[in-house]
């Protein structure tokens, strides 16, 4: 089934997302926060909100536009995610998010859909911008142009002998995807073994790309900003291979400038990188 190109360039109506401390705490637990990060896990400390929480209010408006293209949702995987933070999220509140489908691009067998989202607070102040690349398997070959490459402010150093400036390693739980999905992404690919096998993942449900993304952001905060994620102004993860719940996520960071690091994420149990060309910037 061909994808519907008619909504390209059309901005969605603002979608309200109301959240409480319970929601930001649940998100933090979903991306692996530990009791040593109590500021994000206890309302008595605010709680503070992890900046990667920005992907939560953007998900539903993006998903609605994705659905309206006629994409087979069982064939959808996350290709990349970029977030730019303009102000910290409040401990609780209401935000409004709009989504624009920038384009549908032909990647031969696959199609890549690029969505741009803006999230503002109730007074209209911009809080965060998101760009999501969504891959629809078996939807390419329609003769379109390939997806554009976004600017990378921190390309990985080409010196293969250079050691990373930081390494963070963390074991995920076998239940990690089941926990993360409670923050909004209920795709059965991350929960149902039979569904996962049916769409090509015989090993079982995979971890959400945005869950791996949250781990990467927490790791970058530890390695770049003294464990203070509020100092991060932007972060990007191009997803290359899946992660399974129970895998050990390893994030390596390479300082490129005083305010930008190149990031690479791998899985300890398998000799493969799962995020290549990632980056994070400091405010």
Task: Give short descriptive properties of this protein.
single chain; 283 residues; 10 strands; 10-stranded antiparallel β-sheet; 18% helix; alpha+beta; Thiol Ester Dehydrase, Chain A
Please provide a written account of the structure.
- The structure is a single chain.
- The chain has one domain (15-282): Roll (Thiol Ester Dehydrase, Chain A), CATH 3.10.129.10.
- The chain contains 5 helices and 10 strands, in the order βααβββββαααββββ.
- It is globular and about 50 Å long.
- It is of the alpha+beta class.
- It is 18% helix and 34% strand.
- The protein has a 10-stranded antiparallel β-sheet.
Number of domains: 1
CATH fold naming:
Thiol Ester Dehydrase, Chain A
Q: Which parts are unreliable, with pLDDT below 50 for 5 consecutive residues or more?
A: none
Assign the CATH architecture: Roll
User: What is the highest CATH level, the class?
Assistant: Alpha Beta
Helix-strand string: EHHEEEEEHHHEEEE
Into which percentage range does the β-strand content fall?
25-35%
CATH superfamily: Hotdog Thioesterase
**Sheet with most strands: strand arrangement:** 1-3-4-5-2-7-10-9-8-6
- Secondary-structure class: alpha+beta
* Measured distance between first and last alpha carbons: 44 Å
Shape: globular
Q: What number is the mean pLDDT?
A: 95
Q: Summarize the main sheet.
A: 10 strands, antiparallel
* Rg over CA atoms: 18 Å
**Helix content class:** 10-25%
Number of DSSP strands?
A: 10
